[in-house]
Specification:
Blueprint lengths: L2 H6 L3 H10 L4 H10 L28 E5 L14 E5 H7 L4 H7 L1
Antiparallel strand pairs: 1-2
Length: about 110
Amino acid sequence: MHDTDAIRGIKVQDLSQRYRRRRLSNGEKRHLMSRQNGRCFYCSVELHSIETHPDDFNRDPLWAVTDHKVPFCMGGLTDLDNCVISFRSCNAKKGKMTAEEFLGEF
């Protein structure tokens, strides 16, 4: 930790935690959609829009969500290298597995 960080009362661990919990911008989500050709990372089926959602967003298993290839609980970061777009239902099936573990079972 740098002296200036200690003076401000900022801990490096706190900064890491904030980075892990940040939300992707709409531009970053569009980039992921483009990188994945508009398809779910796990099942490759065409996705719904990631930016706007209906009132029943939380109940719709076919709506697109961002997911972490390495989950938060395993130290995964919220960055473009670790995030993908998937169906809510695929994300729920993956649970706390890594993307590699899940795709090995899929």
